[in-house]
Design a protein that fits this description.
Blueprint: E1 2-4, E2 7-9, E3 17-20, H1 21-40, E4 50-53, E5 59-62, H2 65-72, H3 77-92, H4 97-116, H5 121-142, E6 144-145, H6 151-162, H7 171-185, E7 187-189, E8 192-194, E9 200-206, E10 214-216, E11 219-221, E12 233-235, E13 238-242, H8 262-286, E14 290-293, H9 299-307, E15 311-313, H10 318-328, E16 332-333, E17 345-346, E18 349-355, E19 358-364, E20 372-378, H11 381-404, E21 406-409, H12 413-427, H13 433-444, H14 446-454, H15 459-471, E22 477-480, E23 485-488, E24 495-497, H16 498-516, E25 520-523
Parallel strand pairs: 9-20, 13-14, 13-16, 14-15
Antiparallel strand pairs: 1-2, 3-25, 4-5, 6-21, 7-8, 10-20, 11-19, 12-18, 13-17, 18-19, 21-24, 22-23
Length: about 550
């Protein structure tokens, strides 16, 4: 509201709210810290899981950072930016989402201390930007090369990603599958290997044990043949991929047909049947003996196809059709009239196989298959879901290691080494920016500190020991949460892709800089802009984000 000659002028809705200056900064930082604290306890091999129940009773049990944040349905605008950090990390790397969010929260916590010392937000942002650039340089310097043929290092990346999840007990076996899956679809390019994650399909099947998980060199479709008399096992099949229904097409305009003579009715039925027979003949003449149809297949057409010995599957998802096309070398045809022998795909074998009572189609024996499937097994639905999330992390980690060709040590070793270099770098930077660079370095140490806390260890003793070892030149000294000791974790095969760290540092720093530069929050009608009772007001959540944190039913007390 403004005034002109004593007369108030309203420039916003009466229901809108506004926060400015330090109040806005504190509010945004508090919201982001609350989000970071929500996922912090899930970090590392000893991290705990979160159980989330939505409004209709659906249950999710996980310690995967991006899954937790997606399920929380946050309302605070600054908190949503933290979710974007996790989503970006997941899309770019596939792993390290919790690390990125925890670092971002700690950067803002350190920035809050600097703001209390009357250091301007732009100075803090400038220092953070310098620290980020230096941190990425350090990461590039300490990273160790990894090659396509170095399967042992790639397995170590997969095992590190799976550690702390339900898959940990079988991570040796599961990591071999993950490495085989990624290396099967990897294509060598000018700047390293390119891995299309869409070519690796994960199919879940409840039943059996985790050790029953298998890799299929081809595609598994969670569908069954449409007619019991169709062959269940076809050797050397010719595969037709159709994006058109094998049904009598309805007219585009509404029409009414009146039949007065019963014989004419039979003629009409016969004509429809003949039309379906011609469709099946077209498929047979093209040489296809297996059909995957993205749309429906008429019951009469199913009968004709069964008589011709053609196996058919209907209502196949578009994504599965694309995988089939890439794997078999076939083309998806939009009209039966256009189907030719050249459009057919090839495979060594197609079979229908029962997996825990569910029938699935296995397309196997494909030479130079460009698509593979991981069939995930587990005793319960929640175990299978968590194994799938563990595989997503492992596959993303292996792909990132191959794309950029380098890895770094885990267990907080990399963060402590980068922090040490940043503290030395801060001394060479003049002005108040050096305070921000030092704060950035201390923020990175939140990773080993959190790993120690989640393992029930003394974080202060651990951090002091790690600092001493890094000062002595042990670059890969990290915390082994199993023994509670500081050890060279790189030699113990605890490694992560370099891109996991660089992306986490970049995303966390850029988001923190953006949030720090916000000094005015204007909330439209319908959003609670804050409370007069202060940050500890009931319902404000940890740190007091305005209007609460939102979230799933049963999540209110998690913060």
């Amino acid at each position: 509201m403004s005034q002109l000659g004593g007369q108030p002028i309203f420039i916003m809705s009466e229901d809108a709210s506004r926060q400015t200056g330090k109040d806005a900064q504190e509010n945004n930082i508090s919201a982001c810290k609350a989000v970071a604290n929500a996922v912090r306890t899930t970090l590392g091999p000893k991290g705990m899981d979160k159980m989330m129940v939505d409004s209709i009773g659906d249950l999710v049990v996980t310690n995967d950072g991006v899954t937790i944040l997606d399920e929380m349905e946050l309302e605070h605008p600054a908190a949503k930016m933290m979710v974007e950090i996790a989503q970006t990390q997941d899309e770019e790397v596939g792993d390290g989402t919790t690390t990125a969010v925890v670092i971002a929260g700690e950067l803002l916590r350190k920035a809050e201390d600097l703001l209390d010392q009357d250091i301007h937000p732009t100075v803090i942002s400038s220092g953070y930007r310098l620290a980020k650039e230096r941190a990425i340089d350090v990461l590039d310097d300490v990273a160790q090369d990894v090659s396509f043929d170095d399967k042992e290092s790639l397995r170590s990346v997969a095992k590190t990603a799976m550690t702390g999840k339900s898959a940990e007990s079988s991570k040796e076996y599961l990591s071999d599958i993950a490495v085989d899956a990624v290396t099967s679809v990897a294509q060598e390019g000018d700047d390293g290997y390119e891995i299309d994650r869409d070519l690796i399909k994960i199919v879940k099947s409840q039943g059996g044990s985790v050790d029953n998980t298998e890799l299929v060199e081809g595609v598994v479709i969670d569908k069954e043949k449409v007619h019991p008399d169709m062959p269940s096992d076809v050797e050397e099949p010719k595969i037709a991929l159709l994006n058109t229904a094998i049904e009598v097409q309805e007219t585009e305009t509404s029409a009414e047909i009146q039949i007065n003579d019963p014989s004419k009715l039979q003629d009409f039925v016969d004509q429809e049947e003949e039309s379906l027979r011609e469709m099946v003949s077209t498929i047979k003449e093209a040489g296809a003996d297996v059909v995957f149809c993205q749309k429906g297949i008429d019951d009469i057409a199913q009968h004709f196809m069964a008589k011709e010995g053609i196996t058919a599957v209907r209502r196949v998802k578009k994504s599965d059709m694309e995988k089939l096309a890439k794997a078999t070398g076939g083309s998806v045809v939009n009209s039966l009239n256009d189907l030719e022998a050249a459009d057919l795909g090839n495979a060594g074998r197609i079979r229908q196989h029962d997996v825990s009572g569910d029938s699935m189609m296995f397309i196997e024996g494909i030479e130079d298959a460009q698509s593979v499937t991981i069939l995930v097994r587990g005793g319960t639905e929640h175990v299978v879901d968590e194994i799938e999330r563990a595989y997503e992390d492992a596959l993303g980690g292996i792909a990132a290691a191959l794309r950029h060709g380098s890895v770094v040590g885990g267990g907080g070793a990399t963060e402590v080494e980068v922090a040490k270099e940043l503290k030395d770098y801060a001394d060479s930077v003049g002005g108040r920016e050096q305070l921000a660079i030092t704060a950035f370095a201390e923020a990175l140490e939140v990773i080993p500190r959190t790993l120690a806390e989640n393992a029930g260890l003394d974080p202060i003793d651990i951090l002091v020991d790690l600092r001493n070892q890094h000062e002595s030149g042990n670059v890969w000294a990290g915390i082994d949460v199993m023994t509670g000791q500081s050890e060279d974790l790189f030699n113990k095969s605890v490694v992560e892709p370099t891109q996991t760290k660089t992306q986490a540092v970049q995303s966390a720093s850029e988001s923190a800089e953006l949030i720090l530069r916000i000094d005015d929050v204007i909330s439209a009608s319908g959003f609670d802009g804050g409370s007069d009772e202060g940050p500890e007001a009931p319902g404000a959540g940890a740190g007091g984000p305005p209007g609460g944190m939102g979230g799933m039913g049963g999540m209110g007390g998690m913060m």
